[in-house]
Amino acid sequence: MPVIDYLERNAKLYPDEVALVELNPEEKDTRRTTWKESELIEPTRFEPYRREITWCVFDEKANRFANMLLGRGIKKGDKVAIIMYNCLEWLPIYFGILKTGAIAVPFNFRYDADEILYCAELAEVDMIVFGPQFIGRIEVNAERLSKGRLLIYVGDNCPSFAESYHELVADCSSQPPRIAITDDDFGAIYFSSGTTGFPKAILHKHLSLTQAAEMEQKHHATGRDDTFLCIPPLYHTGAKFHWMGSLVAGSKAVLLKGAKPETILSAVSSEKCTIVWLLVPWAQDILDALDRGDLKKEDYELDQWRLMHIGAQPVPPSLIKRWKEYFPNHDYDTNYGLSESTGPGCVHLGMENIHKVGAIGVPGYRWECKIIDEDGNEVKKGDVGELCVKGPGVMTCYYNNPEATEECIKDGWLLTGDMAMQDEDGFYFLVDRKKDVIVSGGENIYPVQIEDFLRKYDKIKDVAVIGLADPRLGEKTAAIIEIKEGMTAMKEEIDEFCLALPRYKRPKEVIFADIPRNATGKIEKPALRKRYGADKLVAQENMG
């Protein structure tokens, strides 16, 4: 059952119920709309920027866009790229693409002009749909991008090199196009993070999209009365497929702009959100603000909030312990996944397993897992090896890259590149990225273990451990440490704290600096390695 069928079902069963809300509590606007066809609510001044659409309108807008695409020659198997910030138009455009049988190709909104051109050519896209924030980046290569491609602009004041989305769809039919879509048809291309160079294009069938949606609803028991708060960018599989639990349940979701602690709690309070997916930095910021007294729980309506879940990176157990002190009634879950497995959930902790905080969990709904050694043999419990997953969400291939596909898919198993171990109870623990393992003096050192230890120090907000070249050891460990706001720390006190670690795990260098993270919350370790190369490493003695 393709995910577009869920949208059409919701439009029939719950036509007048709110499907999506776009919210920016930090932006005051003089207009406030429900975005119903031919209806504009009287402007309300000094209200937070907010728009909403019902399931019926959501489906109608997807149909209008689909019919526009078909009218412009887009056909089954063609590829339509999206590069926009989160907004009410994003998901109707995505589903409109799927309804035509074309392949949706979301672009990372952080791509620069050259990366946009590279990905457009790699995925062989036939159309690019872009928002106002990307006019400059598209215009740089507009001549090359427009060769054989349509450029569609979503916003006011359409640039001369593109066509206006609003004008194109205005007169299109709101009836569903008669295109047969099956689970075996190709549905989407996503891109790898590109942390080791330009991204790879990841091709998925509709089966993958449906699997991710149904798994999310099952894992978190998303029901009709739930409201999901979506903060991360929709181009990413994590945000979109967590939202699809709401699609399957037929329940409301809120697209929030902004990730400040007050912004998040205000949205949870005003929209009565029950499920919130956070990245580690956002959860830490909320806890720090509560610790400082900058925020007070009693100022918000939070009793309905039932689930906080985290993904995209290893989660420090100390963070969840702190979270439960403030929110003892919250269920908690963590999800592991990658774009090659249609995002999060191929391994998940499970809300009933909070006693195993620190683990990434057990195989997700309809998934299998195993850990292998360098020769491809399964290791015994307790040993470290490469995590492999198998299930209906595994990608078809890296598009136009058979060599890379062959390297990471073996007999239907996806080799994740993550090092993990399984305990006696069957729970999987993430140790580190295979490429991030530090080999120092013949010892394998897993940075995540050191990072988890350092985060227990009460002055440390964030930390990243990387390996730097060393003439004697081969590599040495360096800890880049971000100190909490208003605090200072000395290298000597970090060294003293680390005496509890085995000698070979103790950081040889300590650097006080901000920790760069990408849009999905992952630490950008390649950027740190480049910044702190051995030839220019200067350890700072204290934080300014």
Distance between the termini: 57 Å
- Helix share bin: 25-40%
Highest-level CATH class of the largest domain: Alpha Beta
By CATH, the topology of the largest domain is Rossmann fold
What is the CATH homology-level superfamily of the largest domain?
ANL, N-terminal domain
Mean pLDDT: 89
Total number of domains: 3
Label the structural class. alpha/beta
Inertia-based shape: globular
Give me the Rg, rounded. Answer: 24 Å
Number of strands: 27
**CATH architecture field of the largest domain:** 3-Layer(aba) Sandwich
Low-confidence stretches: 31-45, 534-544
The major β-sheet equals: 9 strands, mixed
**DSSP helix count?**
16
Which range does the strand content fall in? 25-35%
Physical arrangement of strands within the biggest beta sheet = 2-1-11-10-12-13-14-15-16
